[in-house]
Every structure is written in structure tokens, then in C-alpha cells.
Predict the structure.
Amino acid sequence: MLDRVTVVFDGGKIGWIGSTRLAPPADEVIQVDGFLMPAVADRHVHIGLADPAAVLLGGVTAVRDLAWPADVIFGMADASELPTFNGPLIRAAGPMLTAPGGYPTADGWAPAGTGLEVHGAESAAEAVRTLARRGSAAIKVSLNADAGPTPSDAELASVVQAAQDAHLPVTAHAQGSGQVERALGAGVGELAHTPWTERLSESVVEAMAKTMRIVSTLDILSYGRVTGELRVAADNLTRFRAAGGSVVYGTELSNGEIPPGIHVREALLLQEVVGMTQEEVLGAMVAGGLELGAPADLIALGRNPLEELDALGDLRLVVRAGRVVVGA
Ligand SMILES: [Zn+2]
């Protein structure tokens, strides 16, 4: 931690950072009395159901969309790279690969095209190649056995292989008996949610910790209450971390009870029910450090979040790509 720090923005990136005493001159100066840190990245959203401007105003400058129709979401992702876009940088999976009639093809929240049905191993590989050409940032696969059929083991293996060939990560929605084990066995690298439908065995948790990371999304299991699902998920995630597994922050922002922007309760759950330190939670919430050449995406808080994480709700400044969104 540094006191009296200056960050110089240059073309949307950090062009200089260090002690204010040594700072080079700048065209325009903004002074902020607060705790400066990288802005927050949310690794699980459905931005089409949210207000991108509100997300950015709330301190989240980058999001990863994990299932939306290709015709809409890839255009939004492209648009989000322009300085005129009033919202966070969007990286998108595109539609979620699923079995015919599988989740989310029949779910109320998902417009037609949110799920992409695969018909056999070759069809699954072709779907991955098509998404890769369109600019997919990750391949999402639906293993939701509670809501319908799921891709076969052969289709799943084909998805993982094709994604590997395209240098794309695979993230799975694993829900229902045995689905986490299927994802693990197939070489899926990430779970899009902390598993909540069953307590995972020690051996599965230990194997997962070596090859997978988990996107938290704890608050959708509780919305501020204590529920059986939250208890199961917290237990799984705590053991996953103890085994050395990596956790990133994600909220499943859509149109439910999750507010746009930094979701303080998600951060507090990681601390309070998973036992992460404030520093670990903050590390899971950012895409990188404040360093030379990094995107000039940062926030300032009114208090020190390393002392009290709820300082994340006390935003004083939001900057995306060198543009001051809050606090000008
Ligand atoms: Zn989702």
C-alpha cells in the first residue's frame, strides 16, 4: 500500500504510477481522498438483462457474459470496446451449449438463442468453432440435469477438445447429481457457479482444486438469508480453497435481486461464510493490478476495504479506460 499516490492516464491505459512527489505534469488533475484500487470485474453476468450504465456507475468496469443469443451479445461486446459505450467492457461466451430441450432452452429468463443445442460430437465441435470465429471469450456448457437433458459424455469431450484447439476456456453450469464430477472428468476448467446441489466428496474437491476454478455467485443462493443451498455451497467452496483451488468473483447479474455494480454482499459472503481474508476477496474481484500499461480502470473508496469490506459500497471514483465516470 502506498500513501499519496498519483496515477497518470495515457490513452486509456496507466501511463505512470507512483508517489505524488515524483509525478510528471498532467493536462488535467483530479484529486481524490480515498482508497484507490483496480476496478471490479464480474465474471458471471447476463448483461442483456441489466443496465450496462448502472453496472459501470457501480464500479464494475469489465464483465463476462455467460449466455445470451449470439446475434445480440457479440455486437454488444464489440460496441463495449468503443469510448462511446456507456457501460463496462463486455467479454461474452455467446449461447450456452446444451442438449436438445436442455437448460436453458425452456427457461423463462432466457430468450430464444440463449441455449445452442448440439446433436452429437461433431455438431458440438462445430458449435465451438463457430463461437470461436464470432469472438467468444469462453465456451459455456450446460450440465443442468435438474432442468432437462444434458450433453452426452462424447459431446462434452468434443466441446472440451474443440475449445482447447481454439484456445478458449470452458465453463460449466453444473447442477444435479454427479454433474460436477462429469465436468471434472471431461477436463472442464471452470464452474460458472459454486456447486450447491450436493456436498462434493473430498477426492472430487481435491482433484477440482488442481484443474478448475470456481466463479462464486453465492448470493443467488441466499439473497441475504441463510439457506440450505448456501450452506452446501459454502462448505464446498471452503474445502475447495483449502485444497488450493482458485475462486473468482461473479454475481450472476441479470434482472433478479442482484444489484448492478459491485455487489457488496457477494464479497461479504466470501469473507464470512468461506473464510477468505479481505485481501483474498479483493484479489478475486479484480482483473489485475494497478501497474504501468494496464487498462486505466480503477475505483476509489471512502474507507479502507482491507479493514472493512463493506467499504466497497462507498464509491468515490470510477474510471474506465481513463474516462472518469464517477467523481469528476
Ligand atoms: Zn448465469
Notes: The mean pLDDT is 96. The pocket of zinc ion is lined by residues 44, 46, 66-67, 252 (CB under 6 Å).
